[in-house]
Amino acid sequence: MGERKGVNKYYPPDFNPEKHGSLNRYHHSHPLRERARKLSQGILVIRFEMPYNIWCDGCKNHIGMGVRYNAEKKKVGNYYTTPIYRFRMKCHLCINYIEMQTDPANCDYVIVSGAQRKEERWDMADNEQVLTTEHEKKQKLETDAMFRLEHGEADRSTLKKALPTLSHIQEAQSAWKDDFALNSMLRKRFRLSPDLRTPQGHCCQRPPWLTLFWKYLVELCHRESGLGGV
């Protein structure tokens, strides 16, 4: 689309590049066309994708995460140097309008009006997840030596509690660390196991440790014994 617009432009006979500069100025139009019809009010029409599941207050229908709308985007403030944008869109199932805006402090979107959020969030502290450091706490860590010392003690205490779990995870994963040795051991068991080489009746007995390539091995057993394919 961008390439087509760039090469298939008609220049009228009275077009003067020194006077008009571009075709948009010649036609008194904006490059974004209808999307910029309210640009004088600070509003730009964009394609907005619903960030989470909501219920519309107008029709009470569920709107799933990922549904897209033509939304009016407008800057309504700042969080430090990060702009806060508000999005206004019409529900595709009724005449109700939904307004949402960015929340840079929590890296999220908040509903201003027109809908209710389906609550699927959880507390990171209760879930024992790694918590992000807030901006105020970062500044305090840089300027307050006593607070930095107390924060370091708390971090060391948290690490001490988590060490047994981390050690258990590392120990569980260490069994699969040397994949070459495991593969060699598995191939050796293929060669030495009699159940894989001698068919019993019309099928081979499946070892409990075997999960991959079973169909191929059964066909190989039948082929070697002259029984044909399966």
From TrEMBL:
GO terms of biological process kind: mRNA splicing, via spliceosome
GO cellular component terms, A-Z: post-mRNA release spliceosomal complex; U2-type spliceosomal complex
Pfam families: Saf4_Yju2
Residue segments, region Disordered: 1-24
Coiled-coil ranges from the UniProt annotation: none
Function as written in the Swiss-Prot or TrEMBL entry: May be involved in mRNA splicing.
Family of this protein: Belongs to the CWC16 family.
Name of the protein this chain belongs to: Probable splicing factor YJU2B
